[in-house]
Design brief:
The chain is an alpha+beta fold and about 200 residues long. It has 3 domains: about 55 residues; about 60 residues; about 60 residues, Head domain of nucleotide exchange factor GrpE (Nucleotide Exchange Factor Grpe, Chain A, domain 2, Roll). Helix content is about 50%, strand content about 15%. α2 packs antiparallel against α4. It is elongated.
Length: about 200
């Protein structure tokens, strides 16, 4: 029978010391352990805040990149044909010149074959402009509008009392736009001497 003083009944501490032989904890050591733990917690909180900030910045950068990429793709779809369309405007101009060079009297007195030829050119011009329109290219209609240097190129001033001063009185060459960008400004004559615009 064991009487409680037997060394076999003593519990061992994690360091291998017996519980009975462990003296009371040193207050200075306990305080330094607590301070060390508090400092470690503060360091972890600061690191967590830093990592959270980096993560939020990265997410914001990724969102900005996504938006920028979407805009670039939309612009490429809308304006990708700009260079080709600008080159094709010469074709539209030549069709219009061909039609303008057939006087109205000649059209009225022409035989059936010339009328058919002129109608074919008109049909080709309409078809060509409608195909350009399918790709976002539209003809500017500046006549009578207030002169806008973003869409019009002034070639001369004209005395025209029927048109307000500063408005487009004559269109020398048609202008075209794609989306909200100008492919080619309309070359115009601006009215001078008419009534002041409202």
């Amino acid at each position: 029978m064991n009487d409680g003083n037997n060394p076999q009944n003593e519990e061992l501490s994690p360091k291998g010391e017996t519980a009975a032989s462990t003296p009371g904890a040193d207050p200075a050591t306990a305080q330094s352990d607590a301070e060390r733990d508090a400092a470690a917690v503060q360091a972890l909180i600061a690191e967590n805040a830093s990592l959270k900030d980096k993560m939020l910045r990265t997410l914001a950068e990724m969102e900005n990149l996504r938006r920028r990429t979407e805009k670039e793709v939309a612009d490429a779809k809308a304006y990708g044909v700009s260079s080709f369309a600008r080159d094709m405007l010469a074709f539209a101009d030549n069709l219009r010149r061909a039609l303008d060079n057939v006087p109205a009297e000649a059209r009225d007195s022409a035989d059936a074959s010339l009328k058919a030829f002129v109608e074919g050119i008109e049909l080709t011009e309409r078809d060509f402009l409608s195909r350009l329109a399918r790709h976002g290219v539209r003809k500017l209609e500046p006549k009578g509008q207030k002169f806008d240097p973003n869409f019009h190129e002034a070639l001369f001033e004209a005395h025209d009392e029927s048109v307000p001063a500063g408005a487009v009185a004559h269109v020398v060459e048609e202008g075209f736009a794609i989306g909200d960008r100008v492919l080619r400004p309309a070359k115009v004559g601006v009215a001078k001497g008419g009534a002041k615009p409202n």
